[in-house]
Fold this protein.
Amino acid sequence: MVEGLETELKELIIEALMLEDVSVDDIESEEPLFVEGLGLDSIDALELAMAIDKKYGVRIKADDEENRTIFSNVRSLAAYVGQHRAA
């Protein structure tokens, strides 16, 4: 279940952030999303949070202290979305 959600989130990241040269297979679930790894920035985080809200009904607040943990990698993002998504 989580593995399928990880794949969905990888697809969402590519689509929402228009990462044309990146495929799902290029993104490791444990790889950092920011700075190292994919090299995303705060604008990317905002766009990704909006895409997650739209697709899964999971709102991630900009000032949430847990954001660094939630967005640390695809696996942690999938765990958060899996726990909080609308039925």
Q: What stands out?
A: The two ends are 14 Å apart (CA to CA).
